[in-house]
Model the fold of this input.
Amino acid sequence: MSQYSIRLYGDPVLKQRASEVTDIDGTLVRLTDGMIETMYEARGLGVAAPQVGVQKRIFVYDLNDGSGAKVIVNPEISEAAGEWTYEEGCLSIPGLYWPITRPKEVHLRGLDLDGNQISIEADELLARMFQHELDHLDGTLLLERLDGDQRKQALRDLRSRMLTQP
Done:
């Protein structure tokens, strides 16, 4: 069982902008190991540090393509192009999905756990996942990507679920 649990909609930590990582050390490596374990237990494609209650600009991901889990420290998107609408969900809002339009292609930069520069050209699902995790690092939830009517319905659905859960 993971040492972390996924923070859910309503937790104030999800609405705050995470701070830059200034030291890549053993503590950060242990954090990412725990985040990866949490991501696998939750059956997610990615987890940002704020989703486990840590306000650091770092996320982990694994698209189940055989290459294993990866870590990005202090990520930023330097370029974005195109448009792609796709049913998107979030571990912090479990069980609900919405059609979200995002750029189809992005160029992501950041650091790995050795402090080396990373530069990744991504499209479709990988690009979407990068954008989704960066939203978490900026304190933006998926609900904020919905239009007014979708958002109202999503909030009604969330309230209904909260009332029916033990």
